[in-house]
Amino acid sequence: QYDTIYLGYQTRAMTLSQPMKAFLLEYGGEFSNKEIAPFLSEGGYGSGDSTELIREFIARDGGKNKKVDWTFVGPENALCVGITDKFNEAGQKIFGPNQRAAQLEGSKDYALRFMNKYDVPTARHETYASAETCIEGLKNFDYPLVIKEDGLAGGKGVTIAQNQDVAEETIREMFAGGQTAVVLEECLVGPEYSMFVVVSEDQFTILPMAQDHKRVGDGDKGPNTGGMGSYSPLPQLKKEDRQRMIDEIVKPTMNGLVQGNYHYCGILYIGLMMTENGPKVIEYNVCLGDPEIQVVLPRVKNDFAQVIDAAVNHEKLPEIEENDSSILGVVVCSKGYPTHPAPNVKIGKLPHGTNTYIDYANVKGNLNNLIDDGGRLFMVILEADNLVQAQDNVYSYLSKLDLPDCFYRHDIGNRALRD
Ligand code: ATP
Fold first, then answer.
1. Complex confidence, ipTM
2. In terms of pLDDT, which residue wins out, 347 or 164?
3. Cβ atoms 361, 381 nearer than 8 A
4. Which residues does a 6 A CB cutoff place in the pocket of ligand 1?
C-alpha cells in the first residue's frame, strides 16, 4: 500500500480519474542538495512551492516517517538539473528521466541532434550560436519560418516569423535575452497531436492521445502560449495515421534511447505534426504537460499508479486501456496573456458544475476568494459522453462566469467537431 499525496497543477489532474494510491511529489523550481537530503534519508520532504504541502503531509502522520515507494516528478526543471540522478545515487526509486535524457527537452539543439542520429523525422533545421551567423543563415530558409530558443521557455520561446524583418528582430532579441543558441526550422503544416509515452528502459506504452491549442486567439491567431485548451479522444485521427506515428516516430525514438544508453524511465511526451510527408516531431518533453494531461489521464482505464509502479520496477508495462468518455478543457487567462498579462485580476469563487472540474494554475488566495498570479489562471474541464456535449457544457459553464479581466478561446475542439 502506498502513501498518497497529490501536489501541483498536473498531478492534481490525476485525481480526476481515479483514486491513485501512490506517493506523488511535484517539485517546484530548483532544489539544493540540502533541501532534498532530508527527503532521501527520512522519506518525505520537498522544496520550492511544494515544501509546505509536503510538510503538512508529514505532519498528518504525527511526524513519523512515511515509507516512500517511489517519487513521481512533475516539472521539467527538476529533471533538467538532475533530481533523478540524485535519487538513483541514494537508492530511491524515482519516475522521471535522468539529467542526460532530460536534455531532450532542455535543449532543442540536443533533441534535434538525437533525432538526426536515430532517423526520427522532424523539420529541416539548423542551430546557430550567434545573432550574426543566425541572420546570415536566414537565406537558407523560406517564410513563414520557425525560430526557437534553444533552452526551456515554457512554451513561449518559439516565434513563427512571416518575413525577414520580424525574423531578424526576433533573433536579435533572443540572443540579447541571454540565449546562447537559436534554432531555425522549416515551418511544417498539418494537424498537431500530443502523445504521452510511458517509457521504462526498452519498453513503452502509450496514453490516450490529445490535441492542444497553442495559439492565444480563436482560429489559431496570435502568439504561441503554454496551451489554451485541449480534448481527447481525437475522432479525426485515423487509426493508420496513429500507427504511422508509432512505427515512424516512437519506435526510432525508443531505438535511440536504448542504443544511446539513456536508461530512460519516465514520461516521454512527443509533440508531432501529421504533414503530407508523414508524421514529424515538433518537440520532445520529458514529463507530463498541460493542458493535455488533464484530458488524457481521466481517459486511462488502468490504475495509473500500477503502470508507474511497473515502470520504476522494470516489470512488464501493461497495455493502456482507454475508456469511452470524452474530455474537453478550456484555459482561462488574464487579459493580455501571453505578452502583458493584467496583474491582480480578481476571480472570486468559481461555481460548481456537473461533471465539471477546475484545475487551478497561476492563482493565489483561497477557493472562496481567488486572485490571479499571472497568465494562465485555471482550466475548466468537462467530461461527457461525446465531444459535442463536452464542448457545449464547457462553454455554457464559462458563459456564466463574470470575469471581465479574463479571456479564453471559443473554439477549443472545433478541429475535431466542425472542420
Ligand atoms: P512547449 O511548452 O510545448 O514545450 P516549446 O517552447 O518547447 O513549447 P515547441 O513545442 O517546439 O516549443 O513549439 C511550440 C509550438 O510552435 C508548437 O506546438 C507548434 O505549434 C509550433 N511549432 C514549433 N515548431 C514548428 C515547426 N517546425 N513547424 C510549424 N510549427 C511549429
1. 0.95
2. 164
3. no
4. 123, 146, 148, 153-155, 157-158, 185, 187-188, 192, 214, 224, 226, 271, 282-283, 285
